[in-house]
Amino acid sequence: MVLDARDMIQPAAAASEKNIQEVLAQGAAGVSLRSVTKKYGSFTAVENLLLDIPAGSYCCLLGPSGCGKTTTLRMIAGHESITSGDIYIGDRRVNALPPAKRNTAMMFQNYALFPHKTVWQNVEFGLRMRRVPTAERRVRVGEILELVGLSQTSDRKPDQLSGGQQQRIALARALVTRPQVLMLDEPLSALDENLRVRMRSELRNIQKQFGLTFIQVTHHVEEAFSLSDQIVVMDHGHIDQVATPSDLFAKPASKFVAKFIGDNNIFAGTVLNAVPDSDGLDMIELAVAGLGSIFSRGQATSVGQTAACSVRPDLLTIVSTAADAPSPQANHLTARVVDVELTGYVTRVGLLTEATGQELLYKVRTADWADAGISEGQAVTLRWSAHDCVFLAD
Amino acid sequence: MANVSRRYVLRTGLAAGAAVAAARCGGAPEGTPNNPATGPEVNTNQIKDVTLRLIGTGVSQINEIRDKAQEDLGFSLDMRALSTEENNQIAITQPDQYDIFDGEYFSLPLVVPSGNLRPIEIAKVSDWDKIVSFFTSGEYEGMPVEASQGTAPYKVMYLTGPDSTEFSDTPTDFATLIPFQYNADTLGYRPDLITRPIETWGELFNEEFRGKTSILDIPQIGIMDAALVAESLGLMTFADKGNMTKAEIDQIIGILKEQKAAGQFRAFWKTFDESVNLMASGEVILQSMWSPAVAAVQSQGIDCVYAPLKEGYRGWGGGVGLSKNLEGIQLDAAYEYLNWMLEGWVGAFLGRQGYYSAAPENSKQYMSAAEWAYWYEGQPASEDMVDPFGKTLAKSGNVRDGGAFKERFGNIVCWNSTMEENTYLVQKWNEFIAS
Amino acid sequence: MSKTWTVFKPYLLAAPQAIALAVFLVFPIVLIGVVSFWEFNGYSMTPAFTLDNYIGIFTSQVTLKTYLNTFKFVGLVWLATLLIAYPVAFFLSFHIKKLKWQVLLFLICTIPFWTSNIIRMISWVPLLGKAGLVNQLLMGVGLINQPLEFLLYSDFAVVLGMVHLYIIFMIAPIFNSLMRIDRTLITAAEDMGASGFDVFKEIILPLSAPGIAIGSIFVVTLVMGEFVTVRLMGGGQAASIGKLIQTQIGSLQYPLAAANAIILLTVTLVVVFSILRVVNIRKEL
């Protein structure tokens, strides 16, 4: 993949407001999944999905491979039939419609540009297949190529373009048919790290500019966080959580989500006690074997049940002396520093609890870590507030 | 390479000394022939180490003959079966690849000028005078064969001198090939599908058999069959079928083209197996055939007649000759082999398959009276005739098609030929195939 | 030392192959070219420089006629192999999902190669001969009264034999190029509203064109020089340049055969380069 200056031309520079309005002739549409299930023989790929994606939002389906996110996307696009349930795009039920009739367009992993066709022919393809008259095709393809800033490449073949240019051609090809919903199947996974970050912001810009509904499949947490209005975390064919990035970050809804979205420290135990706290949440005391009580906040389950709690690695503090017994304000435990990894601005510190040997992670500004003067092998006390600790029911 | 080094070692052991041996090795056998009969070279210990390499057509390269020869002679034979064309090509272009050439007489006008054959000293062939007289003198009891056209064996039998590549019209002391296999070819047909007897070459172009006949796709032989047919039908005449003029070639090719266009031929054949297959499958019911091919069809349990025709037969003959590479003990071994060929066992072996021996009287002692009577004298078989491979070729009471040896051999009217206009013939033949 | 090595390494690595090609391909062809100018008589050839061989070939009616006949075989065999091979390859690559079955069925396509020429040719007789299965069947159901003779020892039989023999050379490269088509391209085309026929015409056919070209090159070059099948299936009555050359070699007319071979090589190369001009096959290599 070649990264050249043209990659960084903002499409907006070339696009007039009028063009965008034309492209958006049909406006955006929301997508709604109602109890959608997909089975392959006896294997259930996704089960009973309930999901509303608002019109004009950027939604990411996030999850590990095999979680059913791609199947879900393909069902919305119409490349996969559904076993039961309904899919609505806008207010149209599209269960039985072929892909081309759904007012959707799809951008594929590796873009799936036709290698034997020129850029112009690639973009024109969808219009030709819809029997759009030649004259109109010429106008619309010209407009959209101008919009993505690639008019000058129209006679080239895809393999003569840089990775960024290929992505924009793929976008142009998807947008030229004026879809209401654009679906993206891991569009960035083939790119190197540097380009991926840049392309990400370009995708986000285009989505904002066009105001279309974007549904993107990704297994890349950071990508989902940086792009989405709404993240749908999936696991084993189920939706675990639907939330905005900031909510997801602050309040993972399950142990799986907490683990998957980051390096959260998770403690499993049994509910010992729960009392109502402010803003409708409960303050829950969890008995963790070998570590004593850990306090967290959330919707309590009944006493005696197994549960867990999670704290983000950046919300821990390290103190060199043990404090008082745990209180609702400050959880603490003793751990030994075993690994220090400097990743740039942030330093990742790996620790093992003295009592149980559980691995923990602490993230700290590199500058602050240097000030703390703690070295590997040293025993320290970790503290964190119960307000930063999320209760996770099993 | 293995052979060269073996010879090298062998010669070194002989006498002359390393220097002489090396010189001989490098210098190839040129100039005067070596006198092979010097004392120490005839030595049973050494002759065991000799291997003679034979090239020949598949028909004659028979393992049983090789095994018997090795047993009787005490040295090894290495046989290589080739098509007629390959055989000639190797004989002419690759003289180092063989010690004994087993080929047809009509190939000799091509092979002999290459200088790759060593003239056979007749004095060393003990049974020369037992060979059928036509081969050695061109005479045979005043039968039509004496006037036969084409490359008759005796015309290319003698060379003018010990190093000569020139044929002699009259007997000399130097021969080209010792006759080995020979026979008279004619039309073969399926009596179950053609109910009347076929008695003339002209039948090959009879409309009755349109799309069911075949001829040989080897220009030099095919043209001869066509000439016999044309003459028989009175379509044209030849001054000498065995040496046609360009005008004659044009005319006979023209006739062949007409016949091909009219759909007279089902197919042309080039190998023994093809001719057998065509006849046995019934795709072709009348074609020019080699005598053993008729036998091969019969051995499949299918009736096939080798037709005695009133115009006579087309003859062919093959024999064995010596490579110019031979010298010393190798050459001795080769002469021993030639003499063994005439001695009778081989003749009888071939005789039981329907071929004729070069020296029939010698073969007779190896054949039973019943076999001799059936194969050579044209008498009804007094018992089942079984070939050396255990196949019954004729039931008791059968008479050989064409009758006695004298009847068949004596009525050969032309031979497979190499003509002076060979190049032109091939060109016209290609034209015929492409038409 | 190591610098020298770096400079010479690519040449040294390429050397064995280059030498092999030079010795076993280039040199013999040059030799054939040289011999084609020699003179010859019935049994020997003489080094010389004569254009007689070429003049003879170019002024002969037979040459043109035989070339036309050869081209007829090339055209018919090419068309038939393409029309049969493409659906077979398409079926194998798109409708057989399991690799195991693909491999197995592909191997079945190679069966014609498991037997020798002679066996194969002999076995056509009971099938296509006058009393063969096909004729018996047709007569049995009353479609014909007389056996069809054109089934064997005819141009039809030659084409049939060669199609049977060479079809795999068409199937293999087409199958290969079809297998290499990224299946998401098809999904993408469907996503943009392409019908099944559109997908084939716009995506699959153009992307498998290099496979068709390679298969065509195989088939064309093989049929151009073919003489065994022409002789055996044509019953010796069909002419081709290969057979003409073989007859000339058989009659020891090497210079004439060499001149014909040089012309055949030239004509074949012209055909191959024409194919290469139409289709870019680099992606397949």
Describe this structure in words.
- The complex is a heterotrimer of chains A (394), B (435) and C (285).
- Chain A is α+β, with helices and mostly antiparallel strands.
- In chain A, 26% of the residues lie in helices and 34% in strands.
- The N terminus of chain A is likely disordered.
- In chain B, strands 1, 2, 3, 4, 9, 10, 11, 12, 13, 14 and 17 form an 11-stranded mixed beta sheet that branches. In chain B, strands 5-8 form a two-stranded antiparallel sheet.
- In chain B, helix 4 links the parallel strand 1 and strand 2.
- The N terminus of chain B is likely disordered.
- Helices cover 74% and strands 1% of the residues of chain C.
- Chain C is built from 12 helices and 2 strands; from the N terminus they run H-E-E-H-H-H-H-H-H-H-H-H-H-H.
- In chain C, helix 8 runs antiparallel to helix 9.
- The mean pLDDT of chain C is 88.
- Chains A and C meet through strand 6 and helix 4 of A and helix 8 and helix 9 of C.
Which structural traits does this protein have?
heterotrimer; A: 394 residues; alpha+beta; Rossmann fold; OB fold (Dihydrolipoamide Acetyltransferase, E2P); 34% strand; disordered N terminus; B: alpha/beta; D-Maltodextrin-Binding Protein, domain 2; 2 domains; 37% helix; 17% strand; globular
Short description:
By secondary structure, chain A is an alpha+beta fold. Chain A is 26% helix and 34% strand. Chain A contains 11 helices and 20 strands.
